[in-house]
Amino acid sequence: MTTQPSKSLETFENPMPERDYTIRIEVPEFTCLCPKTGQPDFATLNIEYVADKLCVELKSLKLYVWAFREEGAFHEAVTNAILDDLVKATDPRFMRLTAEFNVRGGIYTTVVAEHRQPGWQVPEVVQLP
Questions:
Q1: Which residue(s) pair with 45 in the sheet?
Q2: How far apart are CA 80 and CA 73, in angstroms?
Q3: pLDDT digits (tens, 9 = 90+) for 87-114
Q4: Which among 20, 32, 41, 84 is annotated as catalytic?
Q5: 34 given a catalytic annotation
Q6: 41 is known as an active-site residue
Q7: Catalytic residue among 34, 52, 85, 91
Q8: pTM of the model
């Protein structure tokens, strides 16, 4: 196999750093292991962010997500760890990670974690007539 899982996130320069704009990424095939049973947990990760100087490179994100496949993690812990790693790599103005885990034992879990750069203000939403 030419590619392997990796916890390394690559970035590239934001092509429009003077503008706040939203980048949305959906990762529908996230997998980790239940730390209690060792059974696989499946989730869809929804990443929304306003980049500052850097954007996350998507192939490296794919390999990063793949690296969790054999790791045991509670939903809350893995969601916050992924957000922390993405923030460390990109230092965005704003980032939200929503992890929607598939049903386990009749229970669905959704974990939402956010980061805001100090001093960053949410742009006012324009309502057109």
A1: 27, 99
A2: 11
A3: 999 999 999 999 999 998 899 999 999 9
A4: 41
A5: yes
A6: yes
A7: 34
A8: 0.94
